[in-house]
Write a structure and sequence with these properties.
alpha+beta; 8 helices
Length: 196
C-alpha cells in the first residue's frame, strides 16, 4: 500500500498545474510559429493534439524549458507517428551545465564532484541526449553552441575506456571531441530530445 502512495506521489509531481500548462503551450506555440524553417510542413494544431493526449510529455517539455533548452519541434517521424522536440537554445542549456557524463563518472571522482551527471538528469526529465547524428541534424537548422559545447550519446566502446563525446559549432562547422567522462565545465551542458 505504501508503494502505491509513493508511485502516485511521483506521478502527481510530474503533472503541471493548469496555469503552468497554459503558459508552456503558449510559449511552445509562439516558438513553433516564429521558427517555421525548423518544421515547414507541420501544423501546430497537430502537435497540440499529440501534446494534449500525452500530458506527461508536457511535464518533460516544461523541464526542458525551465532549464533553458527552448524546446521546439524539428521533425515528424512518419514510422513512429511522433513529433520530435529538440533543445533549440542558442547555447547549451544554462540549467544543465557543469555536469559530468554519467553516474559512473560522477562516482569515480574523489574530489570536486559536480552536482550531477548528464545521463541521470536527462532520465529524470524524461528525455534523452542527442546522438552525434541528431546534433548534426540540429545544426542544419541554425548555428548552435558557438560559445558552449554539449555532451552527446557516447558509444560503449568509447565509454568503456573512460571517455565520453561532446560537440560544438566553431568556424562554420560541427566538431566532435572526446574527454574523460568525469570532466565537467561551466560551458558544457547537454541537449536532449523528446518524442511526442
Amino acid at each position: 500500500m505504501r508503494r502505491n502512495r509513493t508511485s502516485k506521489r511521483r506521478l502527481n509531481m510530474k503533472k503541471l498545474l493548469n496555469e503552468q500548462r497554459e503558459e508552456l503551450l503558449q510559449t511552445l506555440k509562439a516558438r513553433f510559429e516564429n521558427n517555421m524553417h525548423r518544421h515547414q510542413d507541420l501544423k501546430w494544431e497537430d502537435v497540440l493534439a499529440r501534446l494534449e493526449a500525452q500530458p506527461e510529455k508536457l511535464w518533460s517539455l516544461n523541464e526542458m524549458e525551465r532549464t533553458g533548452g527552448e524546446p521546439d519541434v524539428v521533425e515528424y517521424d512518419e514510422q513512429g507517428g511522433e513529433f520530435i522536440f529538440y533543445d533549440c537554445s542558442e547555447e547549451s542549456p544554462k540549467g544543465r551545465r557543469s555536469y559530468c557524463y554519467d553516474r559512473e563518472a560522477l562516482e569515480s571522482r574523489k574530489a570536486n564532484k559536480p552536482e550531477n551527471n548528464a545521463i541521470d538528469v536527462a532520465a529524470e526529465m524524461g528525455i534523452e541526449l542527442l546522438s552525434e547524428e541528431e546534433y548534426r541534424a540540429l545544426q542544419k537548422l541554425g548555428e548552435f553552441d558557438k560559445k558552449t559545447s554539449s555532451w552527446v550519446q557516447t558509444p560503449e566502446e568509447v565509454r568503456s575506456l573512460g571517455g565520453a563525446l561532446f560537440c560544438d559549432y566553431r568556424f562554420g562547422q560541427v566538431f566532435l571531441y572526446h574527454n574523460g567522462a568525469s570532466s565537467y565545465y561551466a560551458a558544457r551542458g547537454f541537449r536532449g530530445l523528446l518524442r511526442v
